[in-house]
Amino acid sequence: MGRKIYTGKNVGASGPYSHVVDAGEYLFFSGQTAYNAIGYNGEKYDIATQTQKCFSHLSDVMAEANVTLDDVVKVNVYLTSMKYFDEMNAVYKELFKHPFPARTCVAVLELPLEADIEIECTVKRQA
Q1: Measured distance CA(98)–CA(60) in Å, rounded
Q2: In what order do the strands lie in the sheet with 117-124?
Q3: What are the tens digits of pLDDT across the range 55-103?
Q4: Contact 107, 81 (CB under 8 A)
Q5: Looking at 17-63, which runs of residues are DSSP E strands?
Q6: For residue 94, what is the enclosing H or E element?
Q7: What's the total number of domains in the chain?
Q8: From CA 122, how far away is CA 25, in angstroms rounded?
Q9: Are 113 and 54 in contact (CB under 8 A)?
Q10: pTM given for the model
């Protein structure tokens, strides 16, 4: 049995992976960086803009799977430095309201495409 996947219209992939794998009740979204856009030209962004673009890319893929940020149950955030934590949280709080999804945030040595943040999530389909 093959995997059921969705691909964002405006999002590229920086490796051999699917944007989202549909596992029925749950959808597993691959991490997105600000620099995964189709047509990205190499410009660099501050952490707030990178965070917004990560969620924009995830939302683009979510539209293809007919779900939204309101359906997100778990988020994983990877930062190249915890000095970005507060700025990332400021954007995050604009996109999610209480009760917030479960979340993990960790610092990593580096990320693909020289990004400072990568975000992945899990979505549960509404019954």
Answers
A1: 23
A2: 4-6, 20-22, 26-32, 117-124, 72-79, 102-107
A3: 999 999 999 999 999 999 999 999 999 999 999 999 999 999 999 999 9
A4: yes
A5: 20-22, 26-32
A6: helix 85-95
A7: 1
A8: 10
A9: no
A10: 0.95
